[in-house]
Structure formats: C-alpha cells, structure tokens
C-alpha cells in the first residue's frame, strides 16, 4: 500500500512537472494572446531581461537548493532572460538558449547586453555612417544606457567606451523595447 502511494505521488509529480514545462505544440489562439506578456508573481512582465549580480551564479535544474547545479556562470553582469517565476526562484534563459533556475538574490535589474554574431562597431551617434568609437568582439558584455522607442539603436557603455550599437547586434533587449 505504501509503495502504491509513493508511485502515485511520483506519477502525480511527473504530471505536474510536465504541465509546468513548455509544450512543443502551439497553444490555442486565446492562450497565445494571454501569454504575450503575463504578469509574474512579482507583478513584473514575463519574459524580461535581467543580469547576473555576482561573479559566480549557480544555474539549477529546478526552483530550490535541493535541485542539482547544472551550470555555474562565472560572468558577472551577463544578461539573462527571466521566463518564469516560482516563489523566490527565476527560470532563466541565457544567450545560448540554456535554461534553468536561479535564486532572485543572484539577479540584478541592471540592463546589460552581450555582443552576438561577429565583431561590432560602436558608433558616435545612432547612424551607420557615424564615426566609429570602438570595435567589440563577440561575447563582450556591456551596459544598455538607453534604447529609444522607434529606433533600431541602443546607447551602450563598455570598457570605458560609450556610443551606439544596433539592437540586432546584441542580445539583452527586445526588438521594440524602450529603455530610458
């Protein structure tokens, strides 16, 4: 009897975990519309970008210290995308698509970016013909100062340089997101 109860509990837990994970099937239209920017338990929208607060941050397989550490980030200020919340835990996705859980105390609201693709040029103004300020290699991390509405550019700062990068050259900001 006890074994049957444990097995039923395990099956129930597996069903709950399966329901919490992202499905491979498209959601019905009503659900998709609601999922555009749902408010999380914190009242903040999901998804949203944050950054790592410390030099070492554990990425866990589940929302709690009892879950194993899957990865240890060793890059303070790395931007990550919060895609779910459970109590004080945040499910995040990194620039490479890896997902896992990080405690909220290890995250900062400071807006950061990471250069993607190839070497990128910071420009003096938000114009591709503007003089170059610096060249950034792939995976360079910097701070997003502002991303005006209706433009494809963001003002950034990194390594003592400040200027403008195109949004499509970095990861850490949404295509139409405005940052003041």
Walk me through the topology:
Blueprint: H1 2-20, H2 29-34, E1 48-52, E2 57-60, E3 69-73, E4 79-86, E5 89-93, E6 99-103, E7 107-108, E8 112-115, E9 120-123, E10 132-136, E11 141-146, E12 153-158, E13 161-166, E14 170-171
Antiparallel strand pairs: 1-4, 1-7, 2-3, 4-5, 5-6, 8-11, 8-14, 9-10, 11-12, 12-13
- What is the overall silhouette? elongated
The largest pleated sheet is described as:
5 strands, antiparallel
- Share of residues in strands: 35-45%
In total, the number of strands is: 14
**Residues in helix, %:** 10-25%
Residue stretches low in confidence (pLDDT < 50, at least 5 long) are 1-36
| Helix and strand element order | HHEEEEEEEEEEEEEE
* Helix count, DSSP H or I runs of 4 or more residues: 2
Strand order, sheet with most strands: 6-5-4-1-7
Radius of gyration: 20 Å
Distance between the termini: 61 Å
Structural class based on helices, strands and sheet pairing: mainly beta
Which whole number gives the mean pLDDT?
83
Walk me through this protein's architecture.
Helix content is 14%, strand content 37%. It contains 2 helices and 14 strands; from the N terminus they run H-H-E-E-E-E-E-E-E-E-E-E-E-E-E-E. The chain has helices spanning 2-20, 29-34, and strands at residues 48-52, 57-60, 69-73, 79-86, 89-93, 99-103, 107-108, 112-115, 120-123, 132-136, 141-146, 153-158, 161-166, 170-171. Strand 5 (89-93) and strand 6 (99-103) form a beta hairpin. Residues 1-36 have low confidence and may be disordered.
